[in-house]
Design brief:
This protein has 471 residues and is α/β, with parallel strands linked by helices. The protein is built from 17 helices and 14 strands. This is Gfo/Idh/MocA family oxidoreductase.
Length: 471
């Protein structure tokens, strides 16, 4: 182990689930300094990707299950704060006839893992506050990082993950699965083919009633997500909405987001729910009288080329799920919710024409892996498409489709929206994490050129004719 890695991990042992502090970084100086561009970077090929999964609560077990189907991978380590979760996750592997991974648990289990195991990819599914520190530690330990959203909760964290990725030449991919959903990929390819003309406006959202889940004792460990709704007052979860539309508008590869304004309602439900629950159960008393984030946050973003994006966040109102995903161009229009539709004028195209558009413009990746992804699962298959594509890129030495600049620029909406809301919807500038490289960065390739050779292990079912395959 090299000296820098050993020193960093030694310091990391002092970090626990309480507070994690990142090194001081001069954002202005770093932004002005020349650096290695991770956009389009093809890391050396990895024949068998050795994976460590950290965080086995809400999202981690699903990740273990999906990754276990991908050939050319070996899950070598599993880690969680709670040892019993590691035991359960091991069964996902052994029930499929795969080798048991090394087990780690406790506050410093992840540090011990990085210190002891030689891994190629660290897959992080922990609470938000650990995302940036763990991603940074993984890259400094010599591994690529794949991290659940968001990649950071502050401007400093976002700059730091960019800096470390560039310095180590290790990928740090934020796992924005919605970029790999079927309609989103269809419209991305259509946008690339000019079907909508020049995109001038787009809308995305995360509108999902999580009120009961956020207050559930059986939900997020130590009620961490509820506590985030107390600590931060802004758009806490922008990436599902912004990710797909930002890619359609070539953000970071032809345009960039320059500034935003955010406006938010007051809280009309979370405080009331805390009081209602506390009246019956003293466990909830600590959550009474807290100032919760509002129901709906609306963030408006302007780009360098004069285009606009709107991103909304509401996790408490009783309304149907929606990510909006709306694209408006000079020649066409698309929207996903409440019903998928595409228009090239005043009316949506008919069902038969929509079917034809899907057949023509569905990207090669989805045609190749889509049906298998639906069988494996994970939000309808988009999670598996994302995982498979990442592994296929690493195994073939291909650039990944969500380099660190994507995670940083999408995640930084969290702290910047909070700042704007706190200052009565004041305009806030958005950092250019590419340091000007957006002017020459090319949109990522939607084809399977150079890859597409990563197989899928059979799915264990009673009906062996149901096995997954890639042909």
């Amino acid at each position: 182990m090299d000296t820098n890695r050993r020193d960093f991990l030694k310091k990391a042992t002092l970090l626990s689930s309480a507070a994690i502090t990142l090194p001081t970084i001069n954002n202005a100086a770093f932004a002005a300094a020349p650096s290695f561009n991770m956009w389009g970077y093809a890391a050396p090929k990895i024949d068998t990707v050795r994976i460590a999964v950290i965080g086995l609560g809400m999202r981690g077990p699903g990740a273990v299950d999906r990754l276990s189907y991908i050939e050319g991978t070996e899950i070598v380590a599993l880690c969680d704060l709670h040892a019993d979760r590691v035991v359960k996750a091991q069964k996902i592997l052994t029930n499929k006839g795969l080798k048991e991974a090394k087990s780690y648990s406790g506050d410093e289990g992840w540090v011990q893992l990085l210190n002891e195991e030689e891994v190629d990819l660290v897959y992080i599914c922990t609470p938000w506050e650990f995302h940036a520190p763990m991603s940074i530690a993984a890259m400094k330990a010599g591994a690529h990082a794949a991290c659940e959203v968001p990649i950071g909760l502050s401007v400093k964290e976002c700059w730091e993950v960019v800096k470390v990725s560039e310095q180590t030449k290790k990928h740090c991919m934020m796992l924005e699965n919605c970029c790999y959903d079927f309609f989103e990929m269809l419209t991305l390819n259509m946008a690339r083919q000019g079907m909508f003309g020049e995109l001038v406006h787009a809308e995305g959202a995360y509108i999902h009633d999580l009120l009961d889940l956020n207050f559930s004792k059986k939900g997020y460990d130590k009620m961490w997500r509820l506590r985030e709704n107390i600590k931060m007052n802004g758009n806490l979860y922008p990436t599902h909405g912004i990710g797909p539309i930002a890619q359609c508008m070539n953000i970071n590869s032809g345009d960039r987001m320059t500034h935003l304004v955010a406006m938010q309602t007051a809280d009309f439900q979370m405080g009331d729910r805390a009081r209602e629950l506390a009246a019956e159960d003293s466990f909830f008393q600590e959550f009474v009288g807290k100032k919760y984030r509002g129901n709906m946050d609306t963030t408006l973003i302007k780009t360098e080329k004069g285009k606009t994006l709107m991103v909304q966040h509401d996790v408490t109102s009783p309304r149907p799920y929606s990510r909006l995903h709306l694209l408006s161009g000079t020649k066409g229009f698309a929207q996903k919710y409440p019903k998928e539709g595409i228009a090239f004028g005043h009316s949506f195209v008919k069902e038969d024409e929509l079917k034809s558009l899907k057949e023509k413009y569905t990207p090669e990746l989805v045609k190749f892996i889509g049906e298998q992804a639906k069988q494996v699962g994970g939000h309808g298959g988009m999670d598996f498409i994302m995982d498979w594509r990442l592994i296929d890129c690493l195994r073939n030495g291909l650039p990944i489709e969500q380099p660190v600049y994507e995670g940083a620029s999408w995640s930084v909406i969290v702290p910047l929206s909070c700042e704007s809301v706190a200052k009565n919807s004041k305009t806030v500038n958005i950092p250019d994490f590419t340091k000007g490289a957006w002017k020459t960065n090319q949109p990522h390739d939607l084809s399977l050129k150079g890859g597409g050779n990563t197989g899928i292990r059979p799915k264990a079912t009673q009906n062996q004719n149901n096995q997954l395959n890639v042909e």
